[in-house]
Amino acid sequence: MTAVAIAFSDSIVIAKRNLIKIKRVPDMLVWTLMSPIMFVLLFGYVFGGAIDVRGTTYREFLIAGVFAQTVIFGASWTGVGMAEDMTKGVIDRFRSLPMSRTAVLAGRTASDIVSNSLSILLMGLTGLLIGWRIRTGPLEAIGGILLLLLFAYAFSWIMAWVGLKVKTVEMVNNAGFMVIFPLTFVANTFVPVETLAGPLKAFAYWNPVSAVAQAAREAFGNTAGQIPPDVWSLQNPALYTLIWVGIILAVFIPLSTREYNKASSR
Amino acid sequence: MIRTEGLVKRYGDVVALDGLDLAVPQGTVLGLLGPNGAGKTTAVRILTTLLVPDAGTVTVAGIDVKAHPDQVRKRIGLSGQSAAVDEHLTGFENLDMVGRLYHMPKEKSRARARELLDVFELDEAADRPTKTYSGGMRRRLDLAAALVAAPDVIFLDEPTTGLDPRSRANMWDTIQKLVREGATVLLTTQYMEEADRLADDIVVIDRGHKIAQGTADDLKRQVGGERIETVLADAADLAPAQTILAGLSVGEVQVDDQARRLIAPVSGNVDSLRNVLQRLADANIQVADIGVRRPTLDDVFLSLTGHSADEVAEDESEDGKGPKRQSREKEVVR
User: Fold this and answer.
1) Stretch (H or E) spanning A138
2) Which of A137, A158, B250, B291 is buried deepest, with most CB atoms within 10 A?
3) Structure pTM?
4) Cβ contacts of residue B279 below 8 Å, gap of 6+?
5) What count of other Cβ atoms lies within 10 Å of the Cβ of residue B247?
6) B123 to chain A nearest CA, in Å?
7) With 0-12 CB in 10 A as exposed, 13-18 as middle and 19+ as buried, what is B136?
């Protein structure tokens, strides 16, 4: 087998192991999936009336934003999972085996795609119940969902690095919140960017989360024909998102792998 | 099969290994003895490619560990406190996962997992998550995981720490069987008895240094033979008792005022015990407790380093590993 084939097959073994854990300890998944439903309902009903979005209902505008935020939060479970693994002896077992050095990370980020897909499914169903509709074809919609998952996957690698770096599960959660809250709120996720003030607006324009949400919104046909703000990132949201995905993966796959090799179990 | 020369590992200012030399010929067992913080686990971690040493050469199965860690990983198995099993997976899933990560074909990996579960008498529990296993079962599974690829060299890091005596005896039988089948084993332990039973050669290390090497008998000779331990009912009798014991002892009599205890090295155990009792009774000294004791690891340490294994455990902890483990192990040592 070539090195790539080995890395791939090892990653699948590790991903399987993680999925078995989800199956055996379903509580964690249930709670992970409750929050997206809660977000859809909370934002839909609490802010639904207060926020005005031209040409479309707020709920329809909102869904893509909630999707984006939730899959990013979902990605932070990767960090939690890595930090948890590192505290246990099983990671030393892995490191003493002739397996690929990236497989534990690649397997973890891969299995987190599964839980993120489940949470998109549940959010979508909840959204449909409260009036969200896909106004394009199934292909576009699937494209939007894939883009969301892809961005979340890239984000998983950042969180994996954080999880290896900060060492405890609690700290991963705190560190994750510190980054994810501003990133997902100072964006067009929940409000139109135009309503934001000066520097916040500039940040939101170039925030990749805005681009993901914008791209998803366009893919679902939830923009009601609104022309996005005249910035390149939001004019080409899918491309801008893909560029970010590429940059994140190029930086954080090697960085996380190095950290994994360095870290001994604690 | 295993050879290290001048192995050095530092954690900041703490020197965990300070020029350690080891050599383990094929088909033999080396017992690496020492208290917590002595550097045992650090040595195992370096030999199993988990840690990179700061200096020195390491070869396992003829392969340079620093240069070709991946080649080494194919030839070794690791079990004990440094490695573990996944608690959410079943026994079978754990072993099958390890087999797959050794890149065994699917069918072969499954068959090997079942075979090992059978050998380690875990077949009935094979499809239960290991969370539900007892400590002894988990250790057995852990050892089985190390043997999945039938490795040439096996590293056992305190394989029986925390096990009850029966599980420990079972584990010893298993390890002896492996060696009969040709495996080379490096075993770390805190128990003299374990090393005595399993090891062909024993290396005692303390604070990263080798302080003694030889067979179990060599080491015991170095420590001295049996000793009579006497606890007196009345502290006032300590001085006369010491005089009496000194007359019968083959070495210096140690006195612990607080515990009202005297320890006297002796040669012929039963006769000396009778003599001591007789002389103490003649002198009208009340004895609360008396017994003949064989040397323990603690005695080895007292004799070799002048401090006991417990003291070291309190002084230092190996690469910041928690005090929780130490206190657990200390109980067992006592």
Assistant:
1) helix A138-166
2) A158
3) 0.80
4) B244, B247, B248
5) 12
6) 20
7) middle
Residues of chain A with C-beta less than 8 angstroms from the C-beta of B93 = 17, 20
Q: What confidence category does residue B271 fall into, taking pLDDT thresholds of 50, 70 and 90?
A: confident
Q: For the complex shown, is ipTM > 0.95?
A: no
What pLDDT was estimated at residue B298?
A: 64
Confidence of residue B331 (pLDDT cuts 50, 70, 90): very low
pLDDT tens digits, one per residue of B210-227: 988 988 777 777 766 778
Instruction: Using an 8 Å CB-CB cutoff, list residues of chain B that contact chain A.
Output: 45, 48-51, 70, 73-74, 76, 78, 81-86, 88-89, 93, 97-98, 100-103, 129, 145, 319-321
Residue range A58-113, pLDDT digits in tens? 888 888 999 999 899 888 889 988 988 888 878 888 989 999 989 999 999 999 99
The minimum CA-CA distance between B212 and chain A, rounded to whole Å, is 29
> B186-205 in b/e burial notation, b at 16+ Cβ within 10 A?
bbbbbbbebbbbbbebbbbb
